[in-house]
Design a protein that fits this description.
With 86 residues, the chain is mostly helical. The protein has four helices and no strands.
């Protein structure tokens, strides 16, 4: 299904909420499209982590290399900074 449900579209319109059918950059829909879209807006690591949380396979997805993932370096830097200060 390539379009949003008409009832959902009316509900969103009545509340002035933008609603659009989610498609990934390659035109994929469903979880594939959602993860590809997530990669396009964040980074590859975030999309893979999200897929892993729901046990979704990522081998067949076209996940573009996104920006830098700061999830690990920031806590590492902060822990080093605090350990030096102690």
């Amino acid at each position: 299904m390539n379009s949003i449900d008409p009832q959902l579209a009316e509900w969103a319109k009545a509340r002035n909420i933008p609603a659009d059918a989610l498609h990934g950059p390659t035109g994929s829909t469903g979880f594939d499209g959602a993860l590809e879209d997530l990669t396009a807006h964040t980074n590859r690591g975030t999309a893979i982590a999200a897929a892993n949380m729901i046990d979704y396979p990522t081998a067949g997805l076209e996940l573009a290399a996104g920006g830098l993932a700061w999830r690990a370096p920031i806590p590492l830097f902060l822990s080093l900074l605090f350990s030096v200060g102690v």
